[in-house]
Write a structure and sequence with these properties.
This protein is mainly β and about 300 residues long. Strands 1-2-5-8-11-13-15-18-21-24 form a ten-stranded parallel β-sheet. Strand 1, helix 1 and strand 2 form a beta-alpha-beta unit. The longest helix has 6 residues.
């Protein structure tokens, strides 16, 4: 790698070998100088997660694509990255495309201590999972990650309902297409277990066992600010979400028809038709702070 690892002269990552060696320590800066396509490397599906230790990785608009990792043991963590640093770490301006984690406890990045801060900013992530971990697994897909100004597409299956985030999310668009098998499962899982601000949450949650379709959309102790929801739940056994709102928030009452009676009532949380949700003019008339129709 060229560069000295400083903020003004970052290490320039040009290939797969460079990418797998971004572990210079918590004061080092890296920058992608090329796309990284794992399909063009000798990496196998059983190779481990990539260890990271730096201050910042700036993708500079480049793409990291076609990462596939398979884990055959259900209680083994399966992630793209493994945090091996300390302090604060930032990943920004990167498009992660074609990331597939098959088996085990799936998450985008693992081994983040609660005392450290890892942030994803201005990233696009297209992630597919096949989570085979047990019902006691509470590992989020984006575990302990602060996410801001990003677009995230998550699809696939999980043996049990899987939480998505447990850190604050700001300015993000989520699209889900998830199937939970949950056979005979009687507990609930919180999908967003922290504050949401200026976010759009869309897509589908399918539960194969109707009696196990028990959702907490946003944890009761957290706040939703200036965000919207258009999530289709194929069935609901129980459903709740926070009643703490600030600014203007809304949900599509046609898409979320079987959740309408369970939604909290608030002047800051409006039930709109699909047509209203898609009308920038209407949203501006109710002072919603961002445009309609956004999607991943």
């Amino acid at each position: 790698m060229t560069g000295t690892g400083t903020q003004t002269d970052p290490y320039i990552v040009m290939n797969y070998e460079d990418f797998c060696n971004m572990n210079g320590g918590s004061d080092k800066y890296y920058k992608l100088g090329a796309d990284i396509d794992f399909a063009q490397t000798d990496r196998t599906s059983t190779s481990g997660a990539i260890g990271l230790s730096f201050k910042q990785l700036d993708g500079d608009g480049h793409t990291v694509s076609n990462f596939f990792r398979r884990v055959d043991v259900s209680d083994t963590i399966n992630s793209l990255f493994k945090f091996s640093g300390s302090g604060a770490m930032n990943l920004q301006n990167i498009y992660f495309r074609g990331i597939y984690l098959a088996g085990g406890k799936t998450c985008f990045m693992s081994s983040i201590s609660s005392s450290y801060t890892v942030t994803l900013k201005n990233c696009r992530i297209a992630l597919k999972i096949n989570d085979t971990s047990g019902s006691s697994n509470s590992l989020c897909i984006f575990d302990k990650l602060n996410i801001t100004d990003s677009e995230l597409l998550v699809e696939g299956t999980s043996d049990y309902m899987k939480p998505m985030t447990n850190k604050p999310v700001y300015g993000c668009l989520f699209r889900f297409n998830m199937t939970f098998f949950n056979t005979g499962y009687t507990n609930t899982k919180t999908i967003f277990d922290n504050n949401l601000s200026f976010c759009g949450i869309t897509g589908n949650f399918i539960c194969k066992d109707p009696s196990a379709a028990r959702y907490i959309l946003v944890g009761s102790s957290y706040t939703v600010s200036n965000s919207y929801f258009a999530l289709n739940f194929d069935c609901i056994y129980s459903f709740s979400m926070t009643s703490n709102f600030s600014g203007i928030n809304f949900y599509d009452k046609e898409v979320m028809a079987n959740a309408v009676s369970k939604m909290p009532v608030s002047d800051h949380f409006l039930a709109l038709t699909t047509e209203q949700c898609k009308s920038a003019e209407y949203l501006q008339s109710i002072d919603f702070p961002c445009a309609s129709g956004d999607s991943v």
